[in-house]
Structures are given as structure tokens and as C-alpha cells.
Design a protein that fits this description.
With 387 residues, the chain is α+β, with helices and mostly antiparallel strands. It folds into 3 domains: 7-118, Butyryl-Coa Dehydrogenase, subunit A, domain 1, CATH 1.10.540.10; 121-229, Beta Barrel (Butyryl-CoA Dehydrogenase, subunit A, domain 2), CATH 2.40.110.10; 233-379, Up-down Bundle (Butyryl-CoA Dehydrogenase, subunit A, domain 3), CATH 1.20.140.10. The chain contains 11 helices and 10 strands.
Length: 387
């Protein structure tokens, strides 16, 4: 297992870092204050291939490996989590679900436009009463002629207000719970689909999150993604991808938070000397640096499993669980390092502190990640545990 980067991976990392430092960093504060997705920035990112990074070249993408893709998420997150997560959810959840389960016609119809960000993707799974338990889904898809009639509500749909296409899950056999779910590709202007107001959020203020309403929304059978009642495996594979993506986002956020704390501690003086000389601050920095390197190892290992065609679901859950907690703890300690200044929105650490809290909920809560890890451990003993 060799995690050293190839020449091509080093080239991609430098490209991602350069774009993030030159284009994303200068807009990060404005994105947070305006609470608007940076559409012009997205167009520039698409021109660099970021929206199609993991999509194969045959469908208009770049076709990079998972190690490189994780570095993209990491570098963007060093400056703006909203931007990194917008792109990450578009690719890992929406676009790659179509690549994973779509017909050749569906791939040709949607992936080139998604790679160019002409059609941003969103993933509509969560409902008001079905978050971590998709088997309780109440959105229904009724078979009618050569299509389906969708009725129901989806909540917390990230990218909802800017998306051109949604991967939507509905129950086609409600009594079968998770075994009765079906995936659909639904375009934004489909009659019967209505988007609600944007959700006001504590952090990630550049991420457009909406509620979706389906009222007699007719979706042609040609837009069914995969087999009828075959949605659950699509969900599970999407979860693996997004958890690895969010672990890489956590890594970038943790690195940025540490850098802000170290810079402040080197400049701020108390009792006649820089606070970097205080042991309490040194302990914060040391603990953060160790957690960052541990997280880097978890991300690299999960990406290696993905790149070598192995099952990476458990490793992705481990990385996401550890990463989300590490990012929050590090942002908290670095805010503490700033003292009262950390409580001011004039200092970037306050934005990271607010943004990273969402990482413990997005892509599955901490509790779900712990269940995934524990389930794998007990399965070795022949025991099948439930959440």
C-alpha cells in the first residue's frame, strides 16, 4: 500500500490548490455574508473540469481517480466548505449515481451537461419523517402507463435551488420498506415539482438547501434509474462515495482551521510574549496536527480501496466519522486560541467553526457511521445488528 503521489496526482493537486487560492479564497467571506451560491465561480470551476472530475472522459468528464478527487475536495475546503460541498454532492451523489446505475442513453443525456455544470445535480432522499431510515419513506411512485406519478415531500435537498436535475427516490412498494424503493432522474422544470424556500442555516451559507414537493409529478419510465424496487443498492453506493468525499472536506477544513490558529498564536501577544509560547496553546496545536495526520491516513486508505476496486464503505464511514469530529474539535480549539476575536465574524475562524458543525450530520450522522462500523464488526461473528 503506497500512498505516494504519482506525477499526474501531483499535477492535479497543484491545479486544485492554485484555483482554490486564487479564485475561491477571495470569495469565501462574500459567499458566507451574501448567503448566495457563487454561480460565476462554479462556471470557472467547471471550466477547469471540477464538476466533471470523476466522470469518465467518454461522458465529458476528466476521469480522475479517488485519491485525486479527495485532494480536490480537500483543497477547496481549505477556503470555502460551501463551494467544496456543492461540487462534492453534485458529483459523488447525483452524477456518479447516474454513471453507476443509468442506462447508456441516460448517461449520454445527462453526464456531459453535468460535467460542464450546465446542469447541476442534486440528490433527493431525505424526508421530514425519513432521515436516517429511508425505509420509512412516504414519497410514492405509482406506475401509470409508460411512466410514474410521484407524490410526496423531500427535505434538506442540497443544491436544490440551483440544480437542473435531481436523483429522486420514491417508494414503489411501501410494504417492502428499503427493498421497495426506486430511483428516478427528474428535471427541474418537470410539471408537478415545486421547490420551497431556501433553508436558513447556521453555517454553509453558500449551500442552497430546499424542500421539494411532488404533486402528481409525472416521470417517464425512461427516466427511471435502474430497476424498479432497485433503489436501495444505489443509495448505499452513493453513501459510500459521499462519506469519503465529506471526510476529505473535513481534512481540508481541519488544516485551514489549524493554520488560522497557528498564525494568530504567532502574532498575538499576552503578558509580554506571543501566545505561541503558552503550553495550553501548544497542546491545542499538537493535538490538532496529530488528528489531521490520522485523518489523512484514513482518507488515503479509503480512497486506495476505492481505486483498487475494493469495498470501501466501512473505511469511508470511519474516515467520515473521525473526520467530522476532528474538524469540529480543531475549529473549536483554534477559535479558543483566538480568544474573544474568534467570536467575531471579522475573523475567518468563526466561519469554519459554524461550517464544520454540519459535517457531523451531512451524509449520515455520527450515530449512523458508528452503526456502520459496529455492524461490520458484529457480522464477523454472524450477528446482524439493527440501528
Amino acid at each position: 500500500m503506497d500512498f505516494s503521489l504519482t506525477d499526474e496526482q501531483n499535477m492535479f493537486r497543484d491545479l486544485f490548490r492554485d484555483f482554490a487560492e486564487k479564485e475561491v479564497a477571495k470569495l469565501a467571506e462574500h459567499i458566507d455574508r451574501s448567503e448566495e451560491p457563487p454561480l460565476d465561480l462554479f462556471r470557472k470551476a467547471a471550466a477547469q473540469g471540477f464538476f466533471g472530475a470523476p466522470i469518465p472522459e467518454a461522458y465529458g468528464g476528466v476521469g480522475i481517480d479517488w485519491q485525486s478527487y479527495c485532494m480536490l475536495a480537500e483543497e477547496l475546503s481549505k477556503h470555502c466548505l460551501s463551494t467544496a460541498i456543492t461540487i462534492g454532492l453534485h458529483t459523488s451523489l447525483a452524477a456518479l449515481s447516474i454513471l453507476d446505475a443509468g442506462s447508456e442513453e441516460q448517461k449520454q443525456n445527462y453526464l456531459p451537461s453535468m460535467a460542464a455544470a450546465e446542469m447541476i445535480g442534486a440528490f433527493a432522499l431525505t424526508e421530514p419523517d425519513a432521515g436516517s431510515d429511508p425505509g420509512s419513506m412516504s414519497t410514492l411512485a405509482e406506475k401509470i402507463g409508460d411512466g410514474y406519478r410521484l407524490n410526496g415531500t423531500k427535505s434538506w435537498v442540497s443544491n436544490g435551488g440551483i440544480a437542473g436535475v435531481f436523483v429522486v427516490f420514491a417508494a414503489t412498494d411501501p410494504k417492502a420498506r428499503h427493498k421497495g424503493l426506486t430511483a428516478f432522474i427528474v428535471e427541474k422544470d418537470t410539471p408537478g415539482l415545486t421547490l420551497g424556500y431556501r433553508e436558513p442555516t447556521m453555517g454553509l451559507r453558500g449551500l442552497d438547501i430546499r424542500t421539494m414537493y411532488f404533486e402528481d409529478c409525472i416521470v417517464p419510465e425512461a427516466n427511471r434509474l435502474g430497476a424498479e424496487n432497485g433503489g436501495w443498492p444505489i443509495i448505499l453506493r452513493a453513501f459510500d462515495r459521499v462519506r469519503l468525499t465529506l471526510a476529505a472536506v473535513s481534512l481540508g477544513a481541519a488544516e485551514a482551521s489549524l493554520a488560522l490558529g497557528v498564525t494568530f498564536a504567532a502574532e498575538r501577544k499576552q503578558f509580554g510574549t506571543q501566545i505561541a509560547h503558552k503550553q495550553a496553546i501548544q497542546n491545542y496545536v499538537a493535538d490538532a496536527a496529530v488528528d489531521i495526520e490520522a485523518l489523512r491516513g484514513l482518507v488515503r486508505h479509503a480512497a486506495w480501496l476505492a481505486d483498487t476496486g475494493q469495498d470501501f464503505g466501512r473505511a469511508a464511514s470511519m474516515a467520515k466519522y473521525f473526520g467530522a469530529r476532528a474538524a469540529q474539535n480543531i475549529a473549536n480549539k483554534m477559535l479558543q486560541t483566538h480568544g474573544g476575536y474568534g467570536f467575531s465574524d471579522e475573523y475567518a475562524i468563526s466561519r469554519y467553526y459554524r461550517d464544520v458543525r454540519a459535517l457531523r450530520v451531512l451524509g449520515g450522522t455520527d450515530e449512523i457511521q458508528r452503526y456502520v462500523v459496529a455492524r461490520a464488526a458484529f457480522e464477523e461473528k454472524g450477528i446482524r445488528i439493527q440501528p
